[in-house]
Design goal:
mainly alpha
């Protein structure tokens, strides 16, 4: 890839533009389910345990590498200032990747609890209006005009399709998005009042009978 291509629109987006007006397909849940290979719906405890153990192995691997950060810096250079810089960079990388690994473990435990205890949040997973963790912004949120009168310049600053913009958004979401969602429901379901927090047992996320356990 030529370096400046990261600032150009992606090929998929360019291909869609040349096709003219986009008409969303009329698909039902039945159609979507039929498109998924049937073997993917088969439960396997052995396969699940394999993926769990693999995930834990990655977590331990990241931790092991983190305990060697100082050694790596000393091997790389003998200049104290450069060593400090290398240690800082490696610590940031460890923070990010281990955060992703720990988030996976957290999601597994959260799913085990919420499926039988907290409520019906998972029933709305990936629903663009009722999902718990992410509800995509609408044209009104972006202050865009009606689609029938919108022009290219209306989208220039809010709907960029370049890989560079996508990479930036990925970085923000991976390093800050999940924490902000837990703290004050950032990008979460808008039906909750502003400032709704997973760390506050009295928030509307939990039923009254669940708040004592959440506090513990």
């Amino acid at each position: 890839m030529i370096w400046f291509q990261i600032f150009q629109d992606g090929p998929e987006y360019e291909a869609r533009k040349h096709k003219g007006t986009f008409t969303p397909p009329n698909l039902s849940l039945k159609h979507l389910r039929e498109a998924v290979p049937p073997e993917l719906f088969e439960k396997s405890t052995l396969k699940s345990l394999y993926y769990l153990l693999r995930h834990l192995a990655f977590t331990l691997f990241f931790y092991h590498i983190a305990t060697r950060i100082s050694d790596i810096a000393q091997v790389a250079t003998s200049v104290p200032l450069a060593q400090a810089f290398i240690r800082a960079v490696l610590c940031i990388l460890y923070w990010g990747w281990q955060g992703v690994a720990f988030a996976g473990i957290w999601c597994l435990g959260y799913s085990e609890v919420t499926s039988t205890d907290v409520g019906n949040g998972q029933k709305s997973t990936n629903n663009i209006e009722r999902d718990e963790t992410y509800v995509p912004p609408t044209r009104t949120d972006f202050k865009l005009p009606d689609g029938r009168v919108a022009v290219r310049m209306d989208y220039a600053e809010v709907l960029e399709e370049t890989p560079a913009f996508t990479l930036f958004k990925l970085f923000v979401r991976q390093f800050f998005g999940f924490q902000l969602y837990l703290i004050h429901n950032r990008k979460g379901n808008p039906r909750y009042p502003p400032g709704t927090s997973h760390y506050k047992p009295s928030s509307n996320l939990f039923k009254p009978e669940q708040r004592t356990r959440k506090g513990v």
